[in-house]
Amino acid sequence: MSGRSRGRKSSRAKNRGKGRAKARVRPAPDDAPRDPDPSQYLGLSWGRKRRKRGTEGSMDTLENVQLKLENMNAQADRAYLRLSRKFGQLRLQHLERRNHLIQNIPGFWGQAFQNHPQLASFLNSQEKEVLSYLNSLEVEELGLARLGYKIKFYFDRNPYFQNKVLIKEYGCGPSGQVVSRSTPIQWLPGHDLQSVSQGNPENNRSFFGWFSNHSSIESDKIVEIINEELWPNPLQFYLLSEGARVEKGKEKEGRQGPGKQPVETTQPGTCIEVERMVLGPHVSIT
């Protein structure tokens, strides 16, 4: 092959190479898809990492705060138990003293029951007679968490039953519902007040009907009254009858007209003497 022909081929090959090179660097049209900017990926990745770090930081802080709350709750529970034990002992001392003083007032608890405006509606004439033998009442809470309680009725010897103490207890059953049980009453012949009222729809509104009934615990009005009103302050209900006698005395004195003023005395059974016996001689009574 001559040198001239070689030169022509070499020139054509060079021209083809230039054409291909020019084709490679040709600008793309405006509507052609373009590769995304790598810096955008870097920005998105950094934002995700930042949010992730912020969430992790909030979770760590939240866990620390929750842990502090749990520790504080545990401290409060321990402090509550300590205070409950301390004041429970102090309260028990006053309750024992109150019970001792009430023992010196015949018929105190029976009169307090009869004077309570709501409890009185549950008492028939025979039950009022039975409660006249009631010499003591106790409400015992079961456990510091107050999961239940016992109501204890102490009786003097009487012609109705042999029991010296009748107990009705409330607590939580296996499935969490409230359950109750009571002492079987050993009635003496001819004095069974439950059998007399059996079949009577008013039986549930009697005191001993309530004592032996365990079906309507959720709407137990008597136990609510005893726990929240009678047991905390029986004196206020006992004195209702004393107040009535005082008012009657004032009315009688008004009808008789002015006369010689009576000398104030504190005989057993009067309002002032009863308050001193129950509250103690150190309490000032006006």
Automatic annotation (TrEMBL):
Pfam families the record matches: NAP
Amino acid composition bias (Basic residues), ranges on this chain: 1-25
InterPro entries recorded: NAP-like_sf, NAP_family
GO cellular component: nucleus
GO biological process terms, semicolon-separated: nucleosome assembly
Annotated stretches, region: Disordered: 1-59, 249-268
Regions of compositional bias (Basic and acidic residues) in chain numbering: 27-37
Cross-referenced SUPFAM superfamilies: NAP-like (SSF143113)
Family statement: Belongs to the nucleosome assembly protein (NAP) family.
Entry protein name: TSPY like 5
Organism of this sequence: Macaca fascicularis
